[in-house]
Design a protein that fits this description.
67% helix; mainly alpha; 190 residues; single chain
Length: 190
C-alpha cells in the first residue's frame, strides 16, 4: 500500500522530471536538439525538431535525415497539427529504419513477412484443429456403442478418410514457420 508521503515524493519527482531541470538549463545555456546538432546550426526556442529529436538520441534524427531529408521532415511536421506530430515522427523513424534495413521494400517488406507468418500460423492452427478432431473421432469410434449397420459403414469410411487427411496434413510443425533472424534481432522502432 502506498502511503501519502510516498505519493507526494513521486509527484515531486515526476514534476522535476517534466520540468527538465538540467545543468545546461540552470546555467543559462541549452543543448541543441539532435537535428540542430547534426546540421550544425543554432537551435532556436521554437525549433520544430526539438520536442521530437532530443539531443541525447542523435541516431534517431540521423537516420530520418538520411532517408527523408531534414527539409522534407520539417515541412511535414509544420503541416501537421501539434497533437499529431509525435505520432508522425514515430512513423518516420520506423519507416526510415525499415528502409535502411531493406532499401527495396522498406516497411512493406516487414509487413509482408509478418502477414506471411500469420497465414502460416493460421494454417498450422487449422491442421492442429483437424488433428484434434481426428483423434476425438477415433476415440469415439473406439467406444462400444450401438450403431445401426448403415451408420457403421458411414462411420468407418469417414474415419479412414480422416486418417488419410491427417497423413497429408502431417507436414505442419513449428519448424515450417519462416523466421527471419534479422527481424527478431533488432526492433524496427529504434
Amino acid at each position: 500500500m502506498i502511503s501519502l508521503l510516498d505519493m507526494d515524493i513521486r509527484v515531486i519527482i515526476v514534476y522535476i522530471y517534466n520540468q527538465d531541470i538540467s545543468p545546461e538549463k540552470s546555467m543559462g545555456g541549452s543543448s541543441p536538439c539532435a537535428s540542430c546538432k547534426l546540421l550544425r546550426r543554432r537551435c532556436a526556442k521554437d525549433c520544430i525538431f526539438a520536442p521530437y529529436f532530443p539531443s541525447d538520441d542523435p541516431h534517431k534524427f540521423a537516420i530520418v535525415h538520411k532517408v527523408f531529408g531534414a527539409s522534407n521532415v520539417g515541412k511535414m511536421l509544420q503541416e501537421l497539427p501539434v497533437h499529431q506530430r509525435a505520432d508522425a515522427v514515430s512513423s518516420l523513424v520506423y519507416e526510415a529504419n525499415a528502409r535502411v534495413r531493406d532499401p527495396v521494400y522498406g516497411c512493406v517488406g516487414a509487413i509482408s513477412y509478418l502477414q506471411n507468418q500469420v497465414s502460416q500460423l493460421q494454417m498450422q492452427l487449422a491442421v492442429a484443429q483437424t488433428e484434434i478432431l481426428c483423434i476425438q473421432m477415433q476415440q469415439e469410434s473406439a467406444l462400444p456403442t450401438q450403431i445401426p449397420q448403415d451408420d457403421k459403414s458411414l462411420l468407418l469410411a469417414s474415419t479412414s478418410n480422416l486418417d488419410n487427411i491427417s497423413q497429408y496434413l502431417n507436414f505442419a510443425s513449428s519448424g515450417n514457420v519462416i523466421q527471419d533472424p534479422a527481424l527478431k534481432r533488432e526492433s524496427l522502432w529504434t
